[in-house]
Every structure is written in C-alpha cells, then in structure tokens.
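Now for a specimen:

…
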Amino acid sequence: MDLVPAPQEPLQQPLKSQLGPATAKVMAEHLGLHTVGDLLHHYPRRYEERGQLTHLADLPMDEHVTVVAQVADARLHSFASAKAPRGKGQRLEVTITDGSGRLQLVFFGNGVHKPHKELLPGTRAMFAGKVSVFNRRLQLAHPAYELLRGDGEETVETWAGALIPIYPATAKLESWKIGKALQTVLPMAQDAVDPLPESLRAGRGLLPLPEALEKIHRPHTKADIADARARLKWDEAFVLQVALARRRHADTQLAAVARKPKPDGLLAAFDARLPFTLTDGQRRVSEEIFTDLATEHPMHRLLQGEVGSGKTMVALRAMLAVVDAGGQAAMLAPTEVLAQQHHRSIVEMMGELAEGGMLGGAEHATKVVLLTGSMGAAARRQALLDLVTGEAGIVIGTHALIEDKVQFHDLGLVVVDEQHRFGVEQRDALRGKGKQPPHLLVMTATPIPRTVAMTVFGDLETSVLDQLPAGRSPIASHVVPAADKPHFLTRAWERVREEVENGHQAYVVCPRIGDEEPDPKKKSAEDEAEKRPPLAVLDVADQLTKGPLSGLRVEVLHGRMHPDDKDAVMRRFAAGETDVLVATTVIEVGVNVPNATVMVIMDADRFGVSQLHQLRGRVGRGSAPGLCLLVTEMPEASAARQRLNAVAATLDGFELSRIDLEQRREGDVLGQAQSGARTSLRMLAVIEDEEIIAQAREEATAVVAADPELTGLPGLRTALDALLDEEREQYLEKG
C-alpha cells in the first residue's frame, strides 16, 4: 500500500545542519541520532532538582551515570610509578557527597591540575563517568564535570528552572552537552507535525506535540513533566497500534481456504481414543481455533500456555482438523531435539492413526513425517516425497522445512513452537509454500502479560491455556540461603538422596559449563563485588559425586556436548538409568521425564524470573509432587533474594512475567523480539501503561477501519513512515 508522501518537515533536517559536524557525528555514532526529530525524541532519563542531590547509594555498576553532588574534600597524593619513578606521580582523590552516600573521584597525572583548582570543598557540580569498584568502594575515574555556579549568565540560562534534565549519555557525550544541543534545536519543535487525530487529542485532553516536547526538555514544574509524558506515551502507543491495526486489516484482505473438520474423520477418531478428557481450557481454545480455521481468510493466533498446560494436544487437534479437510499441517520447532520430541509424542498420541498407508493403520489414518537437517539422504527423500504427494498429512521439523526443495501438496496450517526463535523471513517462506496463505498458529510457553501481547504480538489474536491438565502435581519451591544458613544446603542434598531412594530422579542446574576460557575482559561488576564466578556444571558434578551425592549415578549435560552425546545422556536419564542430571539451561526447553521430582538450581540469582519458572516446570510432571530448591548466596535484603522469594511464592507464570517485566523493563523479556528496534519504546512502559495501550489499540482499530490508507491524516502517515522505516517491519513481524 503506497502512502502519498507527506510534506518534508523541519524535523527531518540532519543534525549537522544545526549543531556542527563534530557533535553531530558523535550523536549519530554513539546515540543513533541523525535528525532534529531524533534529538527532540531523545528524552531525559530523569530530572535532578537543584536543591536535591542524586542518591549516590543507588548507583548502578558499569553504567555511565550523571550525578549532581557537592565536594566534601579533595586530597592530592604523590606516588612512584614506572612513568614517574621519583615519586613524582600525582593522584587527586575527591570525595563527593549527597547526604545519602559518598563517592570517590580519581584523577591522575597531568589531569589533576584543573580539578585541583576547581573542585574545592563545598563546590556543587554535575559529574559524569562510569561507575567502577576499587577496594570494594564505588568510584568514578576521570569523570567529566560541569560546575554549577548559579551566577554567570551562561549557566543560569542553560539550567533554567529548578529541574535539570539528565539525558541517557555516553562517555563521548555528557548529559549536559546533550542538554545544550537540545536548547539549540528546541525552537524547531514548534514545527512538529502532530500524528494524533485532533478529535482524539482534544477528546483525551492531551497536550499538542510542540508543547509536550518543550515541557519534556524544559519543565518548570513536575506537573509539566507528567503532562508531557502522558502525551508522548500516547504517541508511541497509538502509532505502533495503527501499524499493527493496518497489518491486521491487510491480513483480513487475504484469501485462505476454509478448513472444517469432518464429523466422522480423523479428529473424531482421535478424540474417541483419548484416555482422558480435555480440560475446559483446552476445549475453549480449540473452539476458538476451529472457528478461525473455518473462515476464508488466514488465522493468525497466538496460543500461550504454561509448560505442561497441554498446548501440544490443542495444536495436534487443529492439525488433524486440517488434514480432515484435505490439507496438510506443518509444525516448526526451534531445535532438532524438540522436533524429534514432538514427533515422538505426536506419533504416540495418535497410535494407529499415524500409520496411514501401512498395514495396521486405521481407515482415517495419515502419515506423520519428521524432517530435520541431520536426516540421512534416503529418509529425507522419502519424507519429501510423502509431502509432495500429500501422503503425509502432518510434518514436524526444524527450519529445514523452509528450504526450497520442500514442496507441499496443499499446506493448510503452520504451527510454530516457541515463536520468538523464528524470524519473519522464515515465517513468510513457509507461508509461501501454500497455494494460498496457510493458517498460522504460534505457540509459546513464556507467559506474556496481556499488554505485551498487544504490543509485540499485536497482529495475532491471543488464546490462553491457564489450567494444568488433571493428574499434574503441584511443585513446592523453597529458597536455600547457602551463605546465611549452610545447613539448609546440606539438607537440600539430603532431600535429593531421599527422592532417589524412593525411586525418583533429580536435576541440578548451574549457570555455566566450566570448561570456558576465563575472559579477563568480561568481569562483571557483580563478580568483582562477590569475587566468585558463577558455579559451573563440571565442578559441581565433581563435588557432588565426591561429596553429598557419592554413590548415586550422576551425569552431566550441557550445550557444548556433541548432539549424539546429549541425546544419549537424555535417553539414559529418561530411561531411569541415571539418578541425578547436572545440567545447564539446555534442559529448559521441552525435556519431559515424569519420574524427575526434584530440581536444585545453583546460583539461582543468576537466572531471570521467567527462566527459573520455565526450568521449574521440568519437575512434577508425573503423579508424584515436585520440589524446586533455589540455592543462592545473596544476602536477605538484596533485590536478587526478593526475586527468588517471588518465584518460590507463586506458580502462576503470568504473575511472574509481570514481576520479571517490572524488574527488567520490556527490552530483554521479549528477547530478540525487540532487538534492532531502537525507536521501539522510549516512554511507554508496557506494564504500567496497560490502560493507554488498550485504549490506543481501540482507537487505532477504529481509525484504520474508517480510513485504511490514512488519507486524511498526513501527520499520522509521517509518523508511521518513520516508525516503519527504522527496520521496524521486522520488529512488527516479531523476529
């Protein structure tokens, strides 16, 4: 759909026309800011009040920070070094304070003269630098600084008002320099074209865009900041939702083959052989899917369900319905191990119904084939043949399915497992295999809060499975504070032995493998503070076999083992020939051993909340209750311990994913979904702004329904073009 080009705006002007080439170059290279509009949308991270000082006590490690503080004392030391052998080396140590804490600044060599003259006790200034730890104390080495004299014309002008904006900055460009550049371009904000339809803006009492930009960069009061934020959040939410609404609208224009199950076909035969009844949730979600499959345009549905909530069963019934209607269904898994596992479990669930064309196959049977990259040539040829003739109704595979050689007889449904590992090109390539676009069902075991689903998966309708199937046992989780209470850890290993003595099995999960080369550059600040790298599989397995678990059959599993060795270890564990599996998070995805009842997670504080929840879902899959022990050395009051307490307190993945998001912001929760999307969300916080996102979605849907080409809204078109230019197509396609 070609949009009529909107008029060139002043905000599209390159920054170098306004700021001088050197500054513009740094902004482009280090902050990704190229135009006047980019800079105007580079919002302050927070605001300092002149009368108040930053909390030095809460500074993040290894980050570039800007603080406003007062010099408490300054001392010049001389020392001998290779460069200055006769004790002529000079080091200036300045202590700054803000009432809540103190911070050491260090200057060396010739760099000491200017600060020694200027940073006298009592002086107030802004300091910018990277926080590091030296002798277990926080320090800034060679920080840049700007004195706050509050007298000279220049300073007063620049820091007008009591609120000093602090910008996301880099070592090459301090916050106050960004502030000065903004003062230069701020008058151009008057020419900003407003993307919001006037009726919407007035109806919701939002500031006009130029005024919002002025107030976010030069607020006089806290109310100014709040008003500006409210307005700028609406822009982000609304433009993104319009983009998604247009995708949904375009999808409804595509034709697809409606697929309705036969009343006495494969699906009916399958349901008749099920040894249990479906949960209400499974029935409800299946109905939603069948309704979509029966329409003339392609289904786009996201199926969310906890580990073990029976998503595979729902997906399989959808695939059988499509086979009944004469089509084929393909299921894409992110790894070979998972593809094989799905294939095994689907063939088991279907029994003789999976033996189409074979002796002993049932009358409605079809063929279920596996297609992965590592298959032998003969097996692969046969699989490809079964697909092109239509002999195989269901194919399960990795991205090998997407290769050019793979031809389908009539592809009707694509099921994607763990969506976020599939790029859009792959989704499109598969879509292109159908005579008409196939229906699409995306499954994920990562619970995604409603608003994130609306933002990131906004072009998909969502179904949620939130009950666990009957016969699943609850999992008890406990935090084991190894440093405060070592006897708790001793007891944890006793519990593992007890479970094994009762005929069960255990997992022990560690953050690292242990044969990595130590990388001297990659010392994270936390490690510096704790002086201990995360525990490793090989070391832990060794200590356990010699110590608390001696006499038990212990094996290791990690991602760098040869695939055949991994499979062999997993097979032995599944067959009950191993008592304890010491592993990295490779077991997070899809390993199913119902006899495993206990999991001990070492250094649990090194894992994210959602990851811990996924890992924990590997125990309690049989009839015996599961136990998950989260071992940590973090002190009681730490944020890490609170995270672990939250995981121990609830089994509700949606609740945990909210906590996870609140703590980590949205960027990394969605993994690569966000990567490369620089403009994705500057103001909008997906959790707090649930209301705005929901309202923006409604408004956007209405606007697009009334005017799909947005002919009457040039400002919105400009904003949309800007959004979609920035390689955002992939982002909306959810890479």
In short: Residues 210 and 481 are 53 Å apart (CA to CA).
